[in-house]
Design a protein that fits this description.
The protein is mainly β and 76 residues long. It contains no helices and five strands.
């Protein structure tokens, strides 16, 4: 599995009737795009994820920009 900041992590539900979960990858903490990933989910929760076989990475499109990068610093 390989990801970059801004890609989406799609976790398929293993239970009938429950929705899949899709979160935005905020940080890639492994080497060369490997897990673990810091992911923000739609409910605002952020967590460190080691994706399993029920997950896939969806690359961001060229029109999307990442919300936050590992090297960004705020000057507010």
């Amino acid at each position: 599995m390989h990801a970059t900041v801004g890609d989406r992590l799609h976790v398929h539900s293993r239970t009938v009737g429950l929705d899949d979960t899709i979160g935005e990858i905020l940080e890639v903490r492994g080497t060369e795009g490997a897990p673990p990933y810091l992911v923000r989910f739609p409910d605002g929760h952020e967590g460190l994820v080691y994706p399993g076989p029920d997950s896939l990475v969806e690359p961001r499109t060229s029109s999307e920009s990442p919300s936050r990068t590992k090297d960004s610093s705020s000057t507010r």
